[in-house]
Amino acid sequence: MRLTTKGRYAVTAMLDLALNAQHGPVNLNDISDRQSISVSYLEQLFAKLRKSALVLSVRGPGGGYQLARAADGIYVAQIIDAVDESVDATRCGGQGDCQQGATCLTHELWTDLSQQIHHFLDNISLQALVARREVQAVSIRQSEQQRLRHDGLAPDTHLATA
């Protein structure tokens, strides 16, 4: 199965946004700091997320991004779809040209698996993820590390780029 960095980062950034929504619009620099994703990559992702009406941008001082609707109405599969990703278990990208231009023996099996995974992700909302204790614990740790870095009490982390 293949889910690229783009899809993973988009879900991570949207979950960060949902976790920090109570403080108002979230700045991409803050998401970048907490999640170790470069700001330029986040800008590319959020342009697609905005185009798909999953986030809204807020301009001006204190601006940033916010969810376009409640977290219980945004699903992981929607996020992955918004950034032009797919969850694909086939080796042919679903094209059916797996074996020298023809469909391979197990093509339908892997296509069915891909559909099942998409259906699974289409039933997990951001709110369901936010409510998980382990997600809350990681979010608290990340926020504390971010606070320490801003206070000069912890080293900067290396930002991942895609």
From TrEMBL:
InterPro entries, per the entry: TF_HTH_IscR, Tscrpt_reg_Rrf2, WH-like_DNA-bd_sf, WH_DNA-bd_sf
Superkingdom classification of source: Bacteria
PANTHER family recorded: HTH-TYPE TRANSCRIPTIONAL REGULATOR ISCR (PTHR33221:SF5), WINGED HELIX-TURN-HELIX TRANSCRIPTIONAL REGULATOR, RRF2 FAMILY (PTHR33221)
A GO term from the CC aspect: cytosol
Protein name, as recorded: BadM/Rrf2 family transcriptional regulator
Source organism of this protein record: Paraperlucidibaca baekdonensis
Keywords (A to Z) from UniProt: DNA-binding
Single Gene Ontology MF annotation: double-stranded DNA binding
